[in-house]
């Protein structure tokens, strides 16, 4: 049986809406471990200390520069200030009680983790939710992207274990390091094992997630806004300018409602009430196009069909499981898919049943939890050698 460990997770967001980190932390607690999270409250809007379902949360606020800033120099300085504070807080926590594992979420925390490993001799897990250089490509110069990829390659080799979220990412990291790589997908806990149809008078489409140019949200507003017998609900968070533009566009359309931020514990109940889920990724967004979004797994555990972009990895899985429709990345193709689902209740049910069957068989958090606990068990063996 795996002995109890004190786990420190590092996270460069405020840990208010990060379902993946919450699921991992609570799964480790259920397995008998202690979990502390040092998070970054860049907006200074959340409690500095919190006990959240057994997770000890420390939120640090950068003293000089509140917010994240869009100016590259200020954004970098702000991150460095938080990293310095997080490192010092981690050393303080280690003095109170020895840390057994440092678990870094994404590249912007990995430098802290490598310093802690060197200082304390603590095993290090790199949980790469993204390929960071791919994620920022398009918003920073190419030279910066190359530098980020080089830094990630260098730091990833210092980790004892690497966690990825899907097969294309696993292949990438297996190609740049010899560290063991484990896929732990962003799957959701099973809600039901029997299919239950929604009860809507008109087709209700749902998107709750990241709001940005890579997600084709404005395309959805234009495609659904002109269709009778269709209602569209959009929620999530993103850059303020984009969100304001999106809100204005939604307000001009009578059958599209903008919900704003939705707490993650409300997402699955809302998904279960919808008829279908939207997840169209721009093929130009390299990081997103090779990944599997939360929407995919939310739709599956709720037994709801999804609309994805053909040629992306999410589209590939959707086609493989026959769990939704895949379309070309344009407004006309999207509109045709919406009409097809609107006019064919039997198709919606067949795809929804297939989605739920895939969740029960493979795409559920319970199976991911088993892999996570096993990975921590392997760290125990490393420590005892």
Please, how many helices?
15
Biggest sheet: strand arrangement: 3-4-2-1-5-6-7-8
CATH superfamily of the largest domain: Glycogen Phosphorylase B
Q: Low-confidence parts, pLDDT < 50 over ≥5 residues?
A: none
Mean pLDDT: 92
Whole-number count of domains: 2
Write down how many β-strands occur, each being a DSSP E stretch of 2 or more residues. Answer: 14
- Please trace the helix and strand order, writing H or E for each element: EHEEEHEHEHHEHEEHEHEHEHHEHEHHH
Just name the CATH architecture of the largest domain: 3-Layer(aba) Sandwich
Oligomer: single chain
Sheet-strand content, in percent, reads: 15-25%
Residues in helix, %: 40-55%
Query: Do you know the CATH topology of the largest domain?
Result: Rossmann fold
Gap between N and C termini? 16 Å
Query: What's the story with the biggest beta sheet?
Result: 8 strands, mixed
Q: What is the approximate shape?
A: globular
Q: How much is the radius of gyration in Å?
A: 21 Å
| CATH level 1 class label of the largest domain | Alpha Beta
Question: Which key terms come to mind for this protein?
Answer:
single chain; 385 residues; alpha/beta; Rossmann fold; eight-stranded mixed sheet; six-stranded parallel sheet; 15 helices; 48% helix
What can you tell me about this protein's structure?
This protein is an alpha/beta fold and 385 residues long. It folds into two domains: 6-186 and 364-384, Glycogen Phosphorylase B (Rossmann fold), CATH 3.40.50.2000; 203-361, Rossmann fold, CATH 3.40.50. The protein has 15 helices and 14 strands. The protein has helices at residues 19-30, 72-96, 107-120, 132-136, 142-156, 167-176, 217-225, 240-251, 264-273, 286-289, 294-302, 313-321, 331-343, 345-361, 365-384, and strands at 6-11, 34-40, 49-52, 55-60, 101-105, 124-127, 161-164, 181-183, 203-211, 230-238, 256-260, 276-279, 306-309, 324-327. The strands form two sheets. Strands 3-4-2-1-5-6-7-8 form an eight-stranded mixed β-sheet, with helices on both faces. It has a six-stranded parallel β-sheet with strand order 11-10-9-12-13-14, with helices on both faces. α7 (217-225) crosses α13 and α9 (264-273) packs across α11. The longest helix is centred in the first third of the chain and has 25 residues, at 72-96. 43% of the residues are buried. The mean pLDDT is 92.
